[in-house]
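Researcher: Next entry in the queue.
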Amino acid sequence: MEMCVKLRSFDVARRINSYMHIRKMHYSVMSVRNSAPSQRNDDRLPCLEVRRHRGAGLRNEKGVTVAPRRCSSTSLYTPPAEGENVPFVLKPELDFNALLRDGEKFEKSIEARNMELEGINIPEMISIWKEVCDLEEQKNQMERKKKALNTRAKELSKQKGGSVTKEKVQLEGRKIREEVKSLNTSLNGLMNRLYPLALALPNSLHNAVPVGDENVVKETVGDGLVSLESRKEHPSISTHHPMVHPGYCYTEGELVIKELDLVLSAASHLTSNGFTRFAMPDMYKPLLREALGLNAEEFNETYAIQTRENLMHLAGTSPMGFLAYYMNSVLEASDLPQRCFAVGRHYNAAAESAKFQGLHHQYQDSRLEIFGVSEGAEDSSNALLFQYLHIVTDLISTFDLPFRVVEVSSRNLLPCMHRQMAVELWIPSERNYIEVANVCNCTDFISRRLKIRYPTNPRESAAQSRKRSFGHTIHGTALKTSVLLSAMLDYGALDLKEAKS
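Model: Structure for this entry, 501 residues:
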């Protein structure tokens, strides 16, 4: 298997290639639809089995918004005993003291988000962490005794005679080594219990986040609340094709050109504001969804594709592409903040519908995703958050359409989000505001899980640094082109000729 991985801190690609080469003769694909089990070195093209993970939805049976459900198992943490069975070990560096010192704050965050409590047990975490701290103190005492004995042994070796004393020191040293070994075993067992519990916790909430279901309007631009006739049947929009998903449509002629123009204009706007453009894959491993605090097997907004090698998630252009790029990286302090964006198709299984409901409600669309990494201080990440928001609102305002900026409520936030702002366009035919862009601050929630770091001392280079801090990540959508096109069609802002039959 040939792989190309962007690396900064160590050669993960070499380990993955070696791992797959060693095991390639023992791998076969059993879960490929309409095909018999096949060896990895088969020359046939791989068949793909596409399915949608369905689990805890956005609303429960009573119609109340609930957050995605987490489970206690995770692929983000590999127990030490299983380290030899994986291509590389990714051990999140969580601040357990801060997590458990502020246990009440996280309980409020869980309640405000209306999260299901499966896999979340803060009292148990506190109990386990106290045991860990006690064992660590015992281990440190043993290490100090061991160091003193080593010094004593060196002194005795320089002296003549005293063989009985030397044997006594050596015996005591062996006893301490056994005790340290036993302590390490106990510590590993406790950490194997603690990590899955801690990784199930959501991010803390910013004080400005409204608790509940209702977003809070921060700013309104233009005259909304205008009701116009729906443009779903516009000649440039073609639906009802039996070989295509009923919730999707074809766009034709000048509408296609207009969408490309909007993308180019938005990309130019971001580039002029210091963003670097990326091109990224469409499929990612489940670990990246877990880094967002989501249960990769139960969340209902993703498609899963079974390839020859792995179960992959089809997301298209999304934050996961940037996370895969920056994972296990040490950035130069002088290069912060990082600003980047990508353009492409996005796939959202939650938007599936039995019939076409308009351009703004499709399970796949074109969008511009933005991402950033700031220094690991909330002041720095909030400054970058509002800088991104200003850039996005400047972009939306160029289209002379009514919009508003809202602070997203706690029950509409993903577990990784500390705070999110959204920009919504008024869609006359829907008589409602529809989100066209958003930005969120995830603080160090993601960077601690995926090890996105920078030198603590700004005078040190990334390669030379030994003490490193975790950056704060910002991500969002700069533009959903289908929502913008839907609004422009409603307002008659597009001078389109009827498509040729």
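Model: The chain has two domains: 96-114+121-199, 216-490.
Researcher: Noted, moving on.
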